[in-house]
Amino acid sequence: KFTFFRSDPRDHSSLSSNNVNNIKLDFQGNVWLATYTNGICRYYPKTKTFKRYSTINTKTGVENRVFNVFYEDKDKTLWASALRQGNYFGALYRYNRDKDAFEMFDDKLSDLFSLTEDNEGNLWGGSITDLVKIDRLHKKHESFYIGQFIRTITDWGDGNLWLGTEGGGLVQFDSKKKLVVKRYTTGQGLSNNSIFSTLRDDHGRLWLGTFNGLSQ
Predict the structure, then answer these.
(1) Are 193 and 187 in contact (CB under 8 A)?
(2) What is the full DSSP assignment across the chain?
(3) Cα pseudo-dihedral 165, 88, 93, 128, rounded to 10
(4) pLDDT of 2-56, one tens digit each?
(5) Hey, which residues does 88 pair with through a beta bridge?
(6) What does the alpha-carbon distance between residue 55 and residue 37 come to, in Å, rounded to a whole number?
(7) 94-110 burial string, b = 16+ CB within 10 Å, else e?
């Protein structure tokens, strides 16, 4: 049985937008929704209601409304990536649990389509063209040109990051040497060069959800 939730402008406790990009369950069991047109909202299962969060870019004063992905790091910090909207850039936000608010972390980190933390505690983001090593302390981020949308980042635990790109296949990036080691495309047997999801299983295999089937 399915239960449907829809946005209702007359009801402030309804879903903020019918276009939901991402759903995240945090360590406290909270359900977070990133929408494409109306920001972030939180779902309350007991009352079946929603709360919308305002996310203001403090540099421009403009509210970021287009969100793509959530990520919860090992310190239980929840991150949310905002994409550009019209002439205004997005930003990377983090959730302040004490204030129950999302605060802008850095507006230079616009258009992150993927986020992950490696086994050494480094936070990485994938943008339209670059892989970004995010400096959470000083905001002196490092960018590495990949050339395509980075849809997914998988940490292998040995210093290698596997990047699923849109149009550029699977990229192996050595995070210690800070360089691309290899790129796998349809020429090496990949079913399609656009990868939208990746999963490492318990047997050390990488599964790739592509625009043309599933690759292993």
Answers:
(1) no
(2) --------TT-TTS-S-S-EEEEEE-TT--EEEEESSS-EEEEETTTTEEEEE--B-TTT-PBP--EEEEEE-TT--EEEEEPPBTTB---EEEEETTTTEEEEEETTS----EEEE-TTS-EEEE-SSEEEEE-TTT---EEEE-SSEEEEEEE-SSSEEEEEEESS-EEEEETTTTEEEEEE-GGGT-S-SBEEEEEE-TTS-EEEEETTEEE-
(3) 10
(4) 888 888 888 888 888 888 999 999 999 999 999 999 999 999 988 999 999 999 9
(5) 85
(6) 12
(7) bbeeeeeebebbbbebb
Contact between 155 and 174 under an 8 Å Cβ cutoff? The reply is no
Number of residues assigned to the chain: 216
Residue type, 165: T
Sign of CA dihedral 86, 109, 58, 65: positive
- Contacts by 181-190 with C-beta closer than 8 Å and gap 24+? 189/215, 190/215
Q: Which of 66, 35, 62 is nearest to 51 (CA)?
A: 35
Token code pair at residue 206:
């990488």
Report yes or no on whether pTM surpasses 0.90. Answer: yes
pLDDT digits (tens, 9 = 90+) for 101-139: 999 999 999 999 999 999 999 999 999 999 999 999 999
Residue at 199: amino acid letter? L
| Token pair recorded at residue 194 | 């656009």
